[in-house]
Design a protein that fits this description.
Radius of gyration: 14 Å
Bound molecules: fe (iii) ion
Number of domains: 1
Strand order of the largest sheet: 3-4-8-7-6-5
CATH class: Mainly Beta
Structural class: alpha+beta
Shape: globular
Helix content: 10-25%
Distance between the termini: 36 Å
Length: 136
């Protein structure tokens, strides 16, 4: 294990104070925003999507694709060290949760029905992201 990102740990009260109610619900309580309501579902601008809670770069616009699901969808993270996954549920209900490796903020889920080259679809709530447009 090298270059493991520093961990950010705040108390529940501190997270609540630093996030909007919707951001808190999604990132700390594993909530899901309603499809097609998120700020970035339709965003096609170039830039980087950072963790809304701690600022870690998570996804790049180059990896974003239109999945038609109503949530921002990416084929891969900026850096695999910046996201962690956790298998949820059992048997046919099984799915893989995705969260920020630095602060633990829930982002969404990753599915194995994405486009080439990875075949992965990171289905991420806009409320867990903060988009930073590319300069110039
Ligand atoms: Fe984070």
């Amino acid at each position: 294990m090298t270059d493991t990102p520093n961990k950010v740990e705040l108390t529940d009260a501190e997270w609540k104070a630093s996030l909007t109610p919707e951001q808190y619900r999604v990132t700390r309580q594993k909530g899901t925003e309603r499809a097609f309501t998120g700020e970035y579902d339709d965003n096609k601008a170039e830039g980087v999507y950072r963790c809304v809670a701690c600022g870690t770069p998570l996804y790049a616009s180059e990896a974003k694709f239109d999945s038609g699901t109503g949530w921002p969808s990416f084929t891969e993270p900026v850096d695999e060290r910046n996201v962690e996954t956790e298998v949820e549920g059992v048997f046919f209900m099984r799915r893989t949760e995705v969260h920020c490796a630095v602060c633990g903020a829930h982002g969404g889920h990753v599915f194995e029905d994405g486009p080439a080259p990875t075949g992965l679809r990171y289905c991420i709530n806009s409320a867990s992201l903060r988009f930073e447009p590319k300069e110039g």
